[in-house]
Amino acid sequence: MDLIIYGIVNSITLILMSIGFALAYGVSRVPNFAHGALFILAGYLTWVFRYRVDLPYWLSIILALIIVGLVGIALYQFILIRVRGMPISEIIASFGVGLAILEFLRWSGLRGTAHMLPPFISGTVRIFDVPLDYQRIIVIFGGIGILLFLWAFTTFTKTGLSLKAIAQNERAGLVLGIDADRAATVAVSLGAVFAGVAAVILLPLGNIVVEMGYEVLVFAIAVSVCGGLGSWKGAVLASFLIGFAQTITVSFVAPHYHFVMALFIIIIVLIFKPSGLFGRQKELEERV
Amino acid sequence: MSSNNIDAILEVKDLLVYYENAIAINNVSLKCPRGKVTGVFGANSAGKSTLMHTISGLILDMRIKEERRGGERITWYGDVLYNGKNITNMKPSDRAKEGLILSPERRQVFPESSTMENIKIGGYLATREEAKKTMEYVFKLFPELINLKNREAGFLSGGEQQMLAIGRALMAQPKLLLLDEPLLGLAPSIEARLAQAIKTINAETGITVVLSEQYARPVFPIIDYGYVLENGSIVLEGTSEELMDNPDVLGAYFGM
User: Fold this and answer.
1) Nearest residue on chain B to A167, judged by CA atoms?
2) What was the pLDDT predicted at A177?
3) Sequence-separated (6 or more) residues with CB below 8 Å from residue A127
4) What is the arithmetic mean of pLDDT over B101-111?
5) Surface of B (29-68) touching A: CB under 8 A
6) Residue B53: is its pLDDT beyond 80?
7) Can you tell me the mean pLDDT for B227-238?
8) Which of A225, B21, B56, B125 is the most exposed place for a label (fewest CB within 10 A)?
9) Residue ranges per structural domain of chain B
10) Taking CA atoms, what residue in B is nearest to A26?
């Protein structure tokens, strides 16, 4: 039973980590390799506002999310826009920015284990006799909440629909009056905010450390590649696949294999489905 | 038709377009009268698509992409006037806001979105009321699409996709509708059906239509004025009757 419950928590953790990345790639085909850095930046900013500036916790979180969103806008408007349409350059540029952010944070004092965010509500409950703390329950609902928001946003709002349009066929979108750069800015910025939301929900479970930024990026890429780049349905499914596989590995083999497991699953999935679980763009392209 | 004092919604003046050193459009001037259907005919590589890209503004996007890649240099000279305003260097999305909407070659529907979603995306520039009204009109015009509302557009047939592409373009509230090879690759019966629909749109809504086509016969009955492009230049122009009387046109574009 605890395997199932912790498997679910672990899976939703992966969804939270990767959904911002999957969104930015899925709707605007921008591989935002600064994703992990934005995650840590949001966590660290929250910590700074909370303990250095002494703001209330909720206000610190909101301020941190706004700043991360603005960083996302700047990242697209000043850097990515210049290399748009060239995937390798986009990766190198965004990864460079991520590296700069992370190492700047390290330089400016984000070292050691002294940086922690408090859980929203402390305490534990027992579900089916498995002890589960409230923060992990918030993780579950946060993950579900983000997915619902994303679904509603891309189904009912004009902006959401325009993002989808640009992702599928940029030129057809352009001639319908959709500004591709504006759509991509929204996507990258929203992806950054999602990274921030994930950070404030997940970081109370551990320390804020720079290395986590790299880890989040690796997991985000693992999940997105495995699920089929650009499909967040695939990302969700892949999160569950990898999440449960990791939980099982941790319980029955050894905890330090959980990272290997994520990459191992990518290999297995790509052998059988080369474009990922839900990567059907290729399939459709071949129909003329 | 004396081409000097007509009310033209769109005018192309002395247009030259080069891909690197190859000339794609060679000194083309044309006028599209308001509220009418204008046809542009020509074989493959005659420059129809380049002309459509220049009018819709996509060529600006192509140029930026090529520049970033370090690919072909795209250059153009001359003017495109829309409602008397020079739009030669206006972004395609801004042209769309002015009511200049292109339905691209090979339909380019959004394959992973449903038919309904494609139509909704088309209404990006429309207000809620306009979108609602136009949606009803599109389904009245193409009742075939009603039963396919929830099907992914990538799985529609060519004819259905073309209806969807035209419907989607209508949703954007065009004043000038550009149709780039709307009948490409379709069965003759569907060709006739779509040509009729295009005429109906023009007659019922007053939207000016400019369409390009390789094979003139199916659209000939619906055009008011036509241009024939060959190797990037206009070699012939006239009303449909005038073109009909020309033996070269009959041979080349009607197979007679």
Assistant:
1) B110
2) 95
3) A5
4) 94
5) 56-58, 61, 65, 68
6) yes
7) 93
8) B21
9) 8-99+174-254
10) B112
Give the burial string for B200-215 (b: 16+ CB within 10 Å, else e): ebbeebebbbbbbbeb
Cβ of B110 within 8 Å of Cβ of A169? The answer is: yes
Continuous segment of H or E residues that includes residue A199:
helix A180-202
Closest alpha carbon within chain B to A181: B93
Among chain B residues, the shortest Cα distance to A169 is held by B110
Residue A181 class from Cβ within 10 Å (0-12 exposed, 13-18 middle, 19+ buried)? middle
Q: Choose among A172, A174, A154: nearest CA to A163.
A: A154
Phi-psi region of A95 (alpha: psi -120 to 50; beta: other; left: phi over 0): alpha
CA distance B3 to B13: 13
Q: For the segment B32-46, what is each residue's pLDDT rounded down to a tens digit?
A: 999 999 999 998 889
Q: Topology of domain B8-99+174-254, per CATH? A: Rossmann fold (3.40.50)
Residue given tokens 């986009």 in the structure block? A90
| Cα distance between residue A188 and residue A217, in whole Å | 15
Banded model confidence at residue A287, pLDDT cuts 50, 70, 90: very low
Instruction: Give dist(CA B181, CA B41) in Å, integer.
Output: 9
Q: How far is CA B159 from CA A173, B30, B143, B153, B163, in A?
A: 21, 30, 13, 11, 6
Contact A175 B125 (CB under 8 A): no
Residue located via tokens 């709002």: A157
pTM for the structure as a whole: 0.89
Chain B CB contacts of A85 below 8 Å:
65, 68-69
CA B192/CA B174 separation, integer angstroms: 23
Provide the number of CB pairs (under 8 Å) joining chain A to chain B: 91
Q: Strand locations in A120-214, DSSP E?
A: 124-127, 130-133
B chain contacts of residue A285, beta-carbon cutoff 8 Å: 111
- Give CA–CA dist A26/A21, Å, rounded: 8
